[in-house]
Design goal:
Helices cover 44% and strands 9% of the residues. With 90 residues, it is mostly helical. The chain starts with 9 loop residues before the first strand and ends with a helix.
Length: 90
Amino acid sequence: MLTALVIVAVGLSLCDNPRCCNPEHLFAGTHSENSMDCVRKGRKYVKRKISLEQRHEIRRRFSEGGITKSALAREFQVSVNTIMVVVATG
């Protein structure tokens, strides 16, 4: 018995501008490649746990000022929402 494998192509963006509709800025890829592209470009983070020490560091640095939640999220490779929860539960 033969089984067909179908791979569905999705459009990945070179410029990452949601409003861009230039077909030259698109290339084909799989859903998996799109997910990896998002992580590589910092638009999506892999779920990860933050240690107790990292929580203390995030709270301390945010309370001292001079750094945004977005910057902390990029540095610790988590979502801004995760940083908001860590800061709020201090």
